[in-house]
Automatic annotation (TrEMBL):
Protein name: Dienelactone hydrolase domain-containing protein
One Gene Ontology term of the molecular function aspect: carboxylic ester hydrolase activity
All copies of domain AB hydrolase-1, residue ranges: 80-293
Annotated PANTHER family: DIENELACTONE HYDROLASE DOMAIN-CONTAINING PROTEIN-RELATED, POLYKETIDE TRANSFERASE AF380
Secretion signal span: 1-21
Family according to the record: Belongs to the AB hydrolase superfamily. FUS2 hydrolase family.
Keyword S-adenosyl-L-methionine part of the UniProt annotation: no
UniProt KW keywords: Hydrolase, Signal
Amino acid sequence: MLKFMLFIALLVSFTAQSAFAAVGFREMTLPDKQGRPMHVSIWYPTDNDRKPVLLGETPAFRGQPVVKDAEAGTGPHPLVLLSHGYGGSWRNLAWLASELVNKGYVVAAPDHPGTTAFDMRPPEAVFLWKRPRDLSRVIDALLSRRELTGGIASDRIAAIGHSLGGWTVIELAGSRFDAKDVVKNCVTQFGSLYCKIFKALGVGRDAASTLAMGADLSDRRIRAVVTLDLGPGRGLTPQSLASVRVPALVFGAAEDVDKETAAKADIAATNKDSAYLAQYLPSATTSYALVPGSLHFSFMQPCKPGAAALIEEEAPGESIVCKDGQGADRNAIHRQVADMIVAFLQRTLPAR
């Protein structure tokens, strides 16, 4: 199956180019009467020929060329939502956004309030069950404001998430999380490090949050989902995963971070969660792949040479974000992942 998917992906990469000239980019803030305003980044096809700027360029990370605030090309365009991991941001999957826009998609990535690098909150203030609803809010906003994107095809919407973002999009597809069981069996089923992460996420802190996390958080407008080494997938019930009716492409990291590095960086291996997802999702509509050389953070933005040392100096333990498998090249990993995602979306979100 993996070889077949790679073949189809390569074929699509040569045949599904966008008719538009460049990648446009704009930012907006969605207001919220309940005190949850949300920053959203939007990439879209444009014919604007202004000189692009490098988006997200830092001393450690490579940016992507975009034309800021350009007029959007006429749609309707298929829409892909991106969901970042715990403590991440819209920048993490900007490389993938550019790849998708070059194939004709509009891409939108919110910074999830409470769990983004720009807004981290203590466990008692983290409302994890609102993450899927954040993506639904983005869909509402883009469907109602055509001028932002050139128009969205309401029947061609997908969601992609990395790490906790993977959990977010699979919840959006209809799965349900059993916080009560997770807390009860945390040490035996997940290990102490994962339990620490659950606590930081406010999992099981009270009866109300436990009930809210087990609710139906799905959005029927979502027609396909992609998870990138998700976590915490094993908290999703097998019954709810089996009932998911939209196609899913599940990526797991091919290699585990060693225990010493994981403990220092305060992360847990998550490829077990991806395997769990692949086991219980409907086999007829689910594809599962381990990309050679990939670690958990291989799905994030490319690092510059010397970035790991620079990050380690500023934030000890955090240089793991630049670590891939021994001898692996992150750009090559991204190429494989992008090609497989494009092939999957072409199949599951076909043009009218």
